[in-house]
Amino acid sequence: MANGRIASASALQSTTALRRPVAETGLTVADSYRRNDFVRAVVLVEGQSDLVALLTLARRRGRDLAAEGVAVVAMGGVTNAYAYLQRYGSRGVHLAGLYDAAEEPRMHAALARSGVATDCFFGCDPDLEYELIRALGVEAVEAVIEREGESRSLRLLAGMPAQQHWSRVEVLHRFIGARAGRKARYAGLLVEALDLSAVPRPLDAVLECARKCAAPPP
């Protein structure tokens, strides 16, 4: 999330908004088509938390997405998948994507309708937040929350009657998604805290697939 410049789903709803940055180095889709170093692969994700997670992971892996010709774009939900597949697929851009497992039928339907193969599209089981919580472990996630000064809020949530019989994993998942902006913020924080040997497979897989697709021909 370098320089805090990330394209939002709503920002990509118009041609003008296509000039906004979608990669951490500031490369934009519109600018890329005006230059020779154009975007060769677009990773479509559901929302801002997925986008932040992938950009953070790419940086930690030492990847320069803009130099590779890879852009990450938040669609604002799988319901918009077909429109985005059409938008970028019609330009001859290689496509990859990340989605929640529950959205797989809808995503695959949009892919089939667009004539795009499923090879570079990966589902999080059941979503990004659960993937990150599992990869880090409950104690490590709670430690991140403590460093952010939000342990009291987590305890208050866990003590509410509706959550008293929830597992710690369920409480953490609810906490991360309970407040506007928190999901995206913790996506970055949790990816920062990950051991790179324990990255959830869908995240590494989609970035690697995009890298291969974007590689110029020999």
Describe this protein's structure.
The protein is an alpha/beta fold and 218 residues long. It folds into 2 domains: 2-126 and 199-214, Rossmann fold (3-Layer(aba) Sandwich); 129-193, no CATH class. The protein has 11 helices and 4 strands, in the order H-E-H-H-E-H-E-H-E-H-H-H-H-H-H. It has a 4-stranded parallel sheet, sandwiched between helices. The longest helix has 14 residues, at 201-214. The chain is globular and about 55 Å long.
Q: What order do the helices and strands follow? A: HEHHEHEHEHHHHHH
- Percent helix among the residues? 40-55%
Question: Main sheet?
Answer: 4 strands, parallel
CATH topology (level 3) name of the largest domain: Rossmann fold
> What is the count of DSSP helices, taking H or I runs of 4+ residues?
11
Give the name of the CATH architecture of the largest domain: 3-Layer(aba) Sandwich
- What structural category do the secondary elements indicate? alpha/beta
Can you lay out the helices and strands and say which pair or pack?
Blueprint: H1 29-34, E1 41-45, H2 48-60, H3 65-68, E2 70-74, H4 81-89, E3 94-100, H5 104-114, E4 121-124, H6 128-136, H7 138-147, H8 151-158, H9 168-176, H10 182-193, H11 201-214
